[in-house]
Structure to design on (558 residues):
């Protein structure tokens, strides 16, 4: 799939259903859904997760931990134009070592792998977060033409800054589309899911992705799921939170928790009936996940078609609806 | 609207009506993210609210700065949770002392529009989508009768407030039926530093106390403000 090279709204929508697939436009999404259907989105805002410390080390925040520390992946010197897998490793760090980022100091609390560690910042609360926004930028992608600004990596409805990368499946949900969904009596509910990094530049670490991720499902969303005809997860993160929660408790329960669920072809869906997502490289774990929603031969046909038709992939690419 | 336990973001909260509204909402159990340019004055307000048992965080920032908007929205959501009430109270008068339009620099008009219109637009855009998904929310635009009356000398400010009010009405129209209300408030002439900057010779005994206006406004918010309307809260 050719990657979209700049932030843009999704234009095309590959609609995969039990009888085959067809080409639609992203704004036509509401017409593909029925009254009574429910879209569940991930309303995490994307945090400014890339920070450069003195000495050129790049700190990429994976997630804030419940104890206030941050899990982070570190890279050696280099900028966003270097693909992640070609970035040099960071200098060797041990617990107690400190990094300086502007007026912030980050102390290494725990080294999990040579480039994966927990950091604690000198500030907390609003002062810390304003400093993170001041010194941080969004995590960048080397296939884009220009660096991303913080407003390039937000959905229309992001709230708490929990996500290391843009929950990009929600980009078709513009205000115009949300209004059309409402007119059509298709419900939309939110959960918050802390999407981690999609790549770390460390093969062994990448193989273990996604790492366990935190989520918060409000009671209103649990109720909306109970009343829905069909539940369509917007993005793999929303699917992971819903299915991870149901696997753990046997049903959906409201509240905050963490999931290590990896959805793949073997996973039997308990809550989610469909998926609105982006188009990603067929080699990525994303493609494994899609097989929980549609059989592989159909996915292969649809993906080959999308590629031949010039659909764009990755974060700012076109959309894909599987029902 | 039952506001106990909700979260609010108030701009221009270091003094005047913004400060007084912060105290009034905190006393009603609203968790607050407070924004203003002056960090020390803002932190003092937040600290005093916390000492009185409330929840308030100081978020120093300039609402006219595009780079600051997601920082303020994201930080606010992080420290007080998803925002239920957004109060656009910060504004700039433009040139002080007030000048006829013909003597006003273009840059002063631009800055007034940036702070009083574009800033609230950006912040609303960053916050209101989450309100739509939760099917609940209130956006309050603090305006002035200078938005309606063509007072000589109030060109930059009056023009920007008129634009702010029209933008608020359009937000309200577009959000009709979503559960999110957008209301314009005219608080009347108050004894604030902004008023002193604009009209240093005014008879202060004729001006209302922003604390009393804030209490009345907090009561109106609790009772429920009509969306798309302009409400005068005159004491």
């Amino acid at each position: 799939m050719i990657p979209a090279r700049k932030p843009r709204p999704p234009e095309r929508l590959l609609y995969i259903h039990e009888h085959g697939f067809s080409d639609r436009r992203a704004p036509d999404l509401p017409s593909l859904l029925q009254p009574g259907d429910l879209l569940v989105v991930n309303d995490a805002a994307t945090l400014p997760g890339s920070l450069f410390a003195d000495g050129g080390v790049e700190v990429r925040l994976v997630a804030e931990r419940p104890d206030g520390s941050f899990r982070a992946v570190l890279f050696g010197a280099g900028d966003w134009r270097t693909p992640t897998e070609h970035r040099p490793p960071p200098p060797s760090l041990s617990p107690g070592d400190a990094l300086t980022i502007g007026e912030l100091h980050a102390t290494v609390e725990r080294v999990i792998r040579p480039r994966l560690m927990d950091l604690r910042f000198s500030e907390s609360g609003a002062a810390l977060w304003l400093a993170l926004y001041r010194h941080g930028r969004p995590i960048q992608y080397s296939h884009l033409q220009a660096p991303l600004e913080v407003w390039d990596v937000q959905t229309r409805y992001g709230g708490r800054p929990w996500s290391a990368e843009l929950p990009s499946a929600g980009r078709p949900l513009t205000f115009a589309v949300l209004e059309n969904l409402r007119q059509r009596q298709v419900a939309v509910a939110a959960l918050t899911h802390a999407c981690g990094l999609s790549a770390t530049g460390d093969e062994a670490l990448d193989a273990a992705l996604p790492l366990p991720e935190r989520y918060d499902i409000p009671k209103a969303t649990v109720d909306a799921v109970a009343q829905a005809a069909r539940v369509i997860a917007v993005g793999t993160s929303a699917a992971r939170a819903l299915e991870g929660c149901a696997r753990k408790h046997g049903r959906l329960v409201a509240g905050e928790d963490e999931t290590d669920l990896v959805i793949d072809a073997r996973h039997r869906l308990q809550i989610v009936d469909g998926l609105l997502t982006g188009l990603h490289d067929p080699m990525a774990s994303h493609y494994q996940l899609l097989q929980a929603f549609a059989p592989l031969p159909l996915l292969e046909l649809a993906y080959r078609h999308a590629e031949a038709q010039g659909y764009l992939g990755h974060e700012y690419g076109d959309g894909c609806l599987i029902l | 609207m039952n506001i106990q336990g909700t979260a609010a973001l108030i701009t221009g909260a270091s003094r005047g009506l913004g400060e007084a509204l912060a105290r009034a909402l905190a006393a009603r159990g609203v968790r607050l993210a407070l924004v203003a340019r002056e960090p020390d004055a803002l932190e003092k307000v937040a600290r005093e609210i916390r000492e009185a048992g409330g929840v308030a965080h100081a978020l120093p920032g300039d609402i006219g700065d595009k780079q600051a908007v997601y920082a303020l929205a994201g930080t606010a959501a992080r420290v007080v949770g998803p925002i239920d009430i957004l109060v656009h109270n910060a504004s700039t008068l433009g040139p002080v002392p007030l000048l006829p339009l013909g003597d006003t620099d273009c840059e002063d008009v631009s800055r007034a529009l940036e702070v009083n219109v574009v800033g609230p637009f950006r912040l609303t855009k960053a916050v209101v989508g989450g309100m739509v998904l939760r099917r609940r929310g209130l956006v309050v635009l603090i305006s002035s009768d200078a938005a309606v009356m063509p007072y000589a000398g109030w060109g930059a400010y009056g023009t920007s407030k008129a634009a702010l009010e029209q933008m608020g009405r359009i937000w309200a129209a577009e959000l009709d039926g979503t559960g999110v209300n957008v209301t314009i408030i005219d608080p009347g002439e108050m004894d604030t530093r902004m008023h002193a900057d604009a009209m240093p010779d005014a008879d202060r005994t004729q001006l209302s106390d922003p604390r009393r206006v804030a209490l009345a406004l907090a009561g109106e918010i609790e009772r429920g403000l009509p969306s798309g309307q302009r409400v005068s809260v005159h004491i």
Observations:
- Helices of chain A lie at 125-135, 175-183, 203-207, 219-227, 236-249, 285-290, 296-308.
